[in-house]
Amino acid sequence: MQTEDLARRVQQRPFVPFRTYLTDGSIYDLRHPELIMVGKRTAVVGVTSNPQQKHFDHLVDVDLLHIVRVEAIEASAKTNGQ
Question: Quick one: 14 exposed, middle or buried, by C-beta within 10 A (0-12, 13-18, 19+)?
Fold first, then answer.
């Protein structure tokens, strides 16, 4: 994924929560813009134990080249029949 594309999604107002899918099968839900910091080649993602939480429990470094898909969380819930 390109830095600009991810940064645009994070800076979008109003913020739309989104899910990232990585090449290793990892999935990260980003429900608050405060929980991601986008760099040139990587993103630092704050992982929470509670979806409503705005403070991270731990951090994960994600190489932007490994993000294969990003979708709005609401849209993915509808496609999964929930």
Answer: exposed
| pLDDT value at residue 56 | 95
Q: Which of 56, 15, 50, 21 is nearest to 35 (CA)?
A: 56
Domain limits, the chain: 3-74
- Residue 39 has which token pair? 């760099």
Residues 6+ apart with CB under 8 A from 40: 3
Q: What is the value of pTM for the model shown? A: 0.84
The conformation of residue 12, written as its DSSP 8-state character, comes to -
The residues with which 69 forms a beta bridge, in sequence order, are: 21
DSSP annotation of 56 reads -
Query: Of 58, 41, 80, which is closest to residue 19 (Cα–Cα)?
Result: 80
Architecture of domain 3-74: Roll (2.30)
